[in-house]
């Protein structure tokens, strides 16, 4: 699968070992990982054509304000926001529900399982955007104006 057709994800994580391992593993599937600092996350969500955002909630520079803003921007742009943590899914899932994250992932799961979850969300995001674009195009051809125009 080429990187053009497979998709991309933003990753905020200050764990270098995990970030390198995860990036190397998932890039074999053609998914491009853009590792960004927490301070660059909101700009990255807004300006990059990304299919998924993965945020390590245990990163030192990630706070509740950033998480809420990032999750809101992701919802608005129809991009899944995934939270990753060293804690178990059961411990983080209630917090994920509060910030409306698409999924919660445990860093201690097998790398293959983590990559499978991210691949699924990247593919889902790409399909959702293609369906939305096709619906907008049909409406424009029918002479209807988008509600947000």
Describe the protein's architecture and organization:
This protein is of the alpha/beta class. The chain has 6 helices and 5 strands, in the order αβαβαβαβαβα. Strands 2-1-3-4-5 form a 5-stranded parallel sheet, with helices on both faces. The chain is globular. The model has no long low-confidence stretch (mean pLDDT 85).
Question: Which features would summarize this protein structure in a list?
Answer:
single chain; alpha/beta; Rossmann fold; 6 helices
Strand content: 15-25%
Order of helices and strands: HEHEHEHEHEH
Which word captures the global form? globular
Q: What's the main sheet like? A: 5 strands, parallel
Q: What is the number of E strands?
A: 5
Give the CA-CA distance, first to last residue: 36 Å
Question: Would you give the CATH topology?
Answer: Rossmann fold
Low-confidence runs (pLDDT<50, min 5 residues)?
Answer: none
Name of the CATH superfamily: Response regulator
**In CATH terms, what is the architecture?**
3-Layer(aba) Sandwich
Structural class: alpha/beta
Fold topology:
Elements: H1 3-6, E1 8-12, H2 16-27, E2 32-35, H3 41-47, E3 52-56, H4 64-77, E4 81-85, H5 89-98, E5 103-106, H6 111-141
Parallel strand pairs: 1-2, 1-3, 3-4, 4-5
Helix pairs in contact: 2-6, 3-4
Short description:
The protein has helices spanning 3-6, 16-27, 41-47, 64-77, 89-98, 111-141, and strands spanning 8-12, 32-35, 52-56, 81-85, 103-106. It has 149 residues and is of the alpha/beta class.
């Amino acid at each position: 699968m080429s990187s053009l057709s497979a998709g991309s994800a933003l990753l905020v994580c200050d764990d270098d070992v995990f970030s390198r391992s995860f990036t190397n593993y998932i890039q074999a599937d053609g998914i491009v990982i853009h590792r960004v600092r927490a301070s660059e996350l909101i700009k990255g969500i807004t300006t990059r054509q990304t299919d998924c955002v993965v945020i390590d909630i245990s990163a030192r520079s990630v706070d509740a304000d950033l998480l809420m803003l990032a999750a809101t921007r992701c919802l608005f742009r129809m991009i899944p926001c995934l939270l990753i943590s060293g804690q178990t899914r059961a411990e983080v899932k209630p917090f994920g529900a509060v910030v409306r994250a698409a999924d919660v992932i445990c860093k201690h799961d097998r790398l293959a399982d983590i990559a499978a979850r991210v691949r699924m969300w990247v593919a889902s995001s790409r399909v959702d955007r293609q369906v939305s674009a096709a619906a907008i195009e049909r409406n424009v051809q029918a002479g209807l104006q988008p509600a947000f125009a």
